[in-house]
Amino acid sequence: MTIALSVNLNKIALIRNSRAGNYPDVVAHGRACLEAGAHGLTVHPRPDQRHIRANDIAPLAALLREFSGAEFNIEGNPFAPHLGSYPGLLALVESSRPHQCTLVPDANQQLTSDHGFDLRDDGGRLQPIIRQLQDWGVRVSLFMDPDLEQIRLAKLLGADRVELYTGPFAEAYGQDKADLNALYRQYVEAAELALELGLGINAGHDLNLDNMTLFRTLPGLQEVSIGHALTVDALRLGLTNTVKAYLALCQSPI
Questions:
Q1: What are the backbone dihedrals phi and psi of residue 246, each rounded to the nearest 5 degrees, phi first?
Q2: pTM of the complete model
Q3: 203 burial via Cβ count (<10 Å: 0-12, 13-18, 19+)
Q4: DSSP bridge pairs for 219
Q5: Which region holds residue 222: left if phi is over 0, alpha if psi is between -120 and 50, else beta?
């Protein structure tokens, strides 16, 4: 089964925001990724708009409509405050109607997402949001740790997919092999349970050309969202070559 590659454009936007103007152009880079064969684009707007800005969403949604079969994935915290010109995640999703919305429990002060939801605490607040997104025709994925109890709760809340947070796996990769194998087994068990429950499986965070050689073997893996490593690799290989290198991992037989 081919694993879909969704290119996260946050780091391109971060570089753009370090100067005035629109260079590099996020939409142009998104187009280049799609023309190279990427299956979709991911953005994660935050209230401080440190990288992707609210006004990036509409032109990116329009770009995706030019590429049949390519998907737009908007990530974010549905509970994050409105701030300045940031209207909130749900307003951005309602106006752009992406194919998928990935709900993530990041706080505004976090450098990056670093844990999945605890649905024992957040499930009650999330359930009406999940239903609203689905009423808009948007597939809902929840950002989750490979915790079996939490995967079961994700299904009970009505989520369509889970996105497994792969930060700990990426950190362990290349270290003690026994520790890595034990940790990867947790992801395998979470994926097997998700499949049993009828949940789709996505994954993301610090995946790269090295550790994807193992993680791509995860049972039922449908989509990976990769941005930071892909952007860094593009400095050495070029953007088109880098996208093709990741696609080769996503598409090659296991």
A1: -70, -40
A2: 0.95
A3: buried
A4: none
A5: alpha
CATH number of 4-251: 3.20.20.70
- Please list the helix, strand and coil fractions of the chain in percent, rounded to the nearest 5, in that order: 45, 15, 35
Catalytic residues: 44, 75, 205
Instruction: Name the residue with tokens 């299956």.
Output: 39
Rounded-to-integer distance, Cα 185 and Cα 236, Å: 33
Predicted confidence at residue 114, as pLDDT, reads 63
Give backbone dihedrals phi and psi of 162, rounded to 5 degrees, phi first: -120, 145
In angstroms, the CA 49 to CA 110 distance is: 13
For the cut 80, the answer to whether the pLDDT of residue 108 exceeds it is no
| pLDDT above 90 as % of the chain | 92
DSSP assignment string, 15-44: HHHTSSS--S-HHHHHHHHHHTT-SEEEE-
Say which residues have a Cβ less than 8 Å from residue 241's Cβ, sequence separation at least 6. none
Residue spans per domain, the chain: 4-251
And the tokens for 229?
A: 């490593």
Question: 242: helix, coil or strand?
Answer: helix
